[in-house]
Specification:
Layout: E1 7-11, H1 15-26, E2 30-34, H2 38-57, H3 63-71, E3 73-76, E4 87-90, H4 96-109, E5 115-118, H5 125-129, E6 138-142, E7 152-157, H6 163-175, E8 179-184, H7 191-207, H8 213-224, H9 230-237, H10 239-253, H11 262-269, H12 286-292
Parallel strand pairs: 1-2, 1-4, 2-3, 4-5, 5-6, 7-8
Antiparallel strand pairs: 6-7
Helix pairs in contact: 1-2, 7-9, 7-10, 10-11
The structure holds 3-hydroxybutanoyl-coenzyme A (3HC).
Length: 293
């Protein structure tokens, strides 16, 4: 029988984690947000407060619904507060050692029947699952940025994931208003495998002086019907995340299309990470930053 998820833990409240927490809270589930970093914990809480306030002001949520949503969402610095969770989703930085250590800890603190999920963009879910005593209950649950808006969730099933776990997580994705697709555990899954060849190639075109970045953005919006040009999208995703995804894809595929463009690496080294740092390919300081916020 399909399980009913009531309480969801989200570990890591950066851009993706905070957005994922909002998706579940809006859908009526109890949410426990966990961050080791007090600042990130405040930011996650602040995002949820601002975003739901905006929803009330636009008439998309009543004040009572907002109060209920905030009341069933808690924020904590302690993993041990996840003892009641039916599902925990990890959204910490893309460093395999951190993820493996976290999953070993989650395996200890979570109920034996809880499903453990990773929002990794490109790291192998199988290697993460192998650090736990319940690899059959470990899946990828990959959301897209901005998580409250984008409709897709890739549910990653490894060779050891039990069918029931993947199916239940896909059903949960539907329940919270998303469209799930079940994918195998290959670097980049489906979307990033196809998307990052294109994004990386756009940086190469820029490096070769084929066109200005503004014109490449305009060309892909007006000519290919995309909602954002590649440089605006890279800035939204984050150049550090984008570089990391290309690197992992290149390691696995050895396809030059994924070899990170040198300019992408240089911007990351210079600390220009996109919208989140105020500047990437485009500048978000001042008026532009306020408009993008
Ligand atoms: N967080 C929450 N809500 C947001 C948001 C954000 N960061 N950005 C926009 N929204 C909401 C707005 O509030 C608005 O909702 P409302 O009408 O209820 O207020 C709605 O989205 C539409 O926003 P806007 O009218 O301001 O802007 P657009 O219509 O231009 O849409 C967009 C913005 C949805 C981001 C659109 O430009 C888009 O789809 N861009 C492409 C994004 C994309 O491709 N994402 C995938 C990246 S790959 C990835 O994430 C994988 C990872 O592993 C790297």
């Amino acid at each position: 029988m399909a399980r009913t998820f009531q309480t969801v833990g989200v570990v890591g409240l950066g851009t993706m984690g905070a957005g994922i927490a909002e998706v579940f809270a809006r859908a009526g589930l109890r949410v426990v947000g966990v961050e080791v970093d007090a600042q990130a914990l405040d930011r996650g809480r602040g995002n949820l407060h601002r975003s739901t306030e905006r929803a009330v002001s636009r008439g998309r949520l009543s004040q009572d619904e907002r109060d209920g949503l905030l009341a069933r969402t808690t924020f904590t610095g302690e993993l041990s507060d996840l003892g009641d969770a039916d599902l925990v989703i990890e959204a910490i930085p893309e460093v395999m050692d951190y993820k493996r250590a976290l999953f070993a800890d989650l395996d200890r603190v979570c109920r034996p029947d809880a499903v453990l999920a990773t929002n990794t963009s490109s790291l192998p879910v199988t290697a993460i699952a192998a650090t736990t005593s319940r690899p059959g209950q470990v899946v990828g649950m990959h959301f897209f940025n901005p998580a409250p808006v984008m409709g897709l969730v890739e549910v990653v099933r490894t060779v050891v994931t039990e069918d029931g776990a993947a199916d239940d997580v896909a059903a949960l994705a539907r329940r919270v208003g998303k469209t799930p697709v079940i994918v195998g555990d290959r670097a980049g899954f489906v979307v990033n495998r196809l998307l990052f060849g294109y994004l990386n190639h756009a940086v190469t075109l820029l490096e070769r002086g084929v066109a200005a970045k503004e014109d490449i953005d305009t060309a892909m919006k007006a000519g290919a019907g995309l909602p954002m040009g590649p440089f605006t999208l890279l800035d939204l995703i984050g150049l550090d995340v984008s570089h990391e995804v290309c690197e992992v894809l290149f390691q696995e595929s050895r396809d030059r299309v994924h070899a990170p463009a040198p300019l992408l690496r240089e911007l990351v080294t210079a600390g220009l990470l996109g919208r989140k740092s105020g500047r990437g390919f485009h500048d978000y300081d001042g008026a532009a930053a306020r408009a993008a916020a």
